[in-house]
Every structure is written in structure tokens, then in C-alpha cells.
Amino acid sequence: MHSLLYYFNIFPTSDVGNKAAVFPLQLLGFDVDVINSVQFSNHTGYGSWEGEVLQGDMLLKLVDGMNENGLLSDETGHILTGYIGSESFLRAVVTVVRRMKAVNPQVRYVCDPVLGDIGRFYVPQQLVKIYRDEVIPLANVLTPNQFEVEQLTGVRIENKADAQRACGILHDLGVPLVLITSIVFPSNAQQSQDSMGMFASERLYGIETESHEDDQRILFIPKLPGQFTGTGDVCAALWLALTANRSTSSLSRKLEQLAGTMNAIVERTHQASLAKLHKQGISSLEEPKDEATRKKIVLSREMQLIQSAGDILNPPLRFQAERISIR
């Protein structure tokens, strides 16, 4: 059993945020303590929602309360953060992570730096600088998507060499392990148009020297039509679990296991969506004619997590990772 402190968002009716990440972690043997960064009625992909964002002072009060009752200890082995919607909460997370690392220097901080995707920010843009200057130097693992990597490093990723360079910048900021959860290169550049890449980079240091090299792997998985909200949350949780024990398997195998499980979940969700929409006489391949239809399509794509328990426990090996030569 692994103890984990988890700061994420909660959407009671949606399989994103807490619902997307806590179930896989508990299934894989992690004892998860949850603190919510926001509490919304549903995820923002629906277009409208109700709820509130937790501010930093409240986070610190909650953590103080946990500490007073002996709920924070050196047995906490991991910290995971996801969507954070305010500057005050993000700065409070920095305070808490430093505090936890003072109690247990071996605690692993896995940061999913949720900023946005496909050219659009989900959070205030001023959070980019806080992540870059204050959060990333504390992180042991970072799980951004392509848009987030580009914002954090200033590198536009159009090929494998760009991905290598961007990961190198993040390593230089202090994070040893980076997973770019999704990469789509421009047309005719190093991948087929119906696939997307997953890129892992680990900085390895010599035992008795300060020299280092970056072990970097990439693989490609099929792209499925539609947008599936919550995949980043699941991906960060699974990557935390897969990398919790460095001795279990190679970086390539861990990336292959992650890709296999994610592909199985998304494929199952896609097929379930098609079946639900067919019953309603809706085609997901056409542009929705009205807002009500669009929301039905979004609802149909809620992640099929419980149905995917077998693939979470026993990752299918469907894809092969390729080692990227050192630049």
C-alpha cells in the first residue's frame, strides 16, 4: 500500500479530475488522500457549470488540520497535482510540497501542469511563470501535453528533435522525469496523420560524477475521432503508479504499458459513445446542430474507467517504444 496526497479538481457528474485519477490509483494499491482544488457541477467541456475554486488560504488550513490530527507523515510517498485554477492555490501548493519534502525528502511530487490544450488556455496565463519558476524545480515527475510543454519552454514542437530540446530545458529546471502525454507533429513530419506520439525523457546522472545523459523514448498510438476529456488526469495517475518503483521495468516498457492502457480506455469510451449516440439518432462525425446535441455528445464520451479495470491492472502491450538517439 502506498500513501499519496492528492490535490485535484472534483466534478461529481464527470469522469475527469478526481474521478478519473483516484479510481486507477486505488485499484493499483495506493491509499489516496484527496484535497479538491475546485468543485464544479461538471467539467468545463459542457460549456456551462456551477461551483467554486478553492483559494490558497483554504488549502493551507486544510493541510494544517490534517497535520494536527497526524494525517501528514513521512509515510506519504507521493504528491500528485492536476488542474489548479488560481494563482493563490498554486503558490499554496508550492508551500505544501516544500513542507512535505522537509518531512520526507524521498516524497515524489508528480505534477500535471494543466494549462490548456490545442492552442487554448484553461487557466490564467500568469500561472505559466509560477509553474516554470517555482513548481517545476520541486517536481520529480512532470506530465504536460504538447501545448503545455511549448508554453513552459518556449519551444514549438514540430519534430522529435524539438521534443528532445524542450525536455532538456525542463530537466535543466530540475525535474528528472518528463512525460509529454500527447504530441502531434505537422503533416508529413515523422508520424502518420492518424496517430499521436507519447514522449518520455529521463535525466540520468553518473554515480560519482555530475555528468548526465537523457534517456528518451517515443511511441505512436492511433488517434480516435472526437475529444475525450479526462485523459490527461488518467495518464498522470497511471504514470505515477508505473514509475513509483524504478526497478520494476525499463522506461520503454513503462511507456508501452501506459500507452496500451490509455488506448484501451479511450477505444472503449469511443465505442460506448458511438452506441449511445446511435440510440439517440445522433452522428458524432457531424458538427452538432445545436447546443443540446453538443452536450449529449460530450456526455456520451465520459471515460469508461470502471469498465477498463482489467486494462489498468494488466496493461495490454499494443505498441513499441523507440529509443531516440542522444542529440
Structural class: alpha/beta
End-to-end Cα distance, whole Å, is 39 Å
Low-confidence stretches: 8-17
Count helical runs.
10
Q: Which strands sit side by side, in order, in the main sheet?
A: 3-2-1-4-5-8-9-10-11-12
Provide the succession of SSEs.
Answer: EHEEHEHEEEHEHHEEEHHHHE
Strand content is 15-25%
Tally of DSSP β-strands: 12
Biggest sheet overview: 10 strands, mixed
Helix percent band: 25-40%
Write down the overall geometry: globular
Query: What integer is the average pLDDT?
Result: 85
Q: Kindly provide the radius of gyration, computed on alpha-carbon positions and rounded to a whole number of angstroms.
A: 19 Å
Concise structural overview:
The protein is an alpha/beta fold. 39% of the residues lie in helices and 21% in strands.
Q: Would you kindly provide a written description of the structure presented here, covering whatever features stand out?
A:
It is built from ten helices and twelve strands. By secondary structure, it is an alpha/beta fold. Strands 3-2-1-4-5-8-9-10-11-12 form a ten-stranded mixed sheet, with helices on both faces. A two-stranded antiparallel ribbon has the order 6-7. β10 and β11 form a beta hairpin.
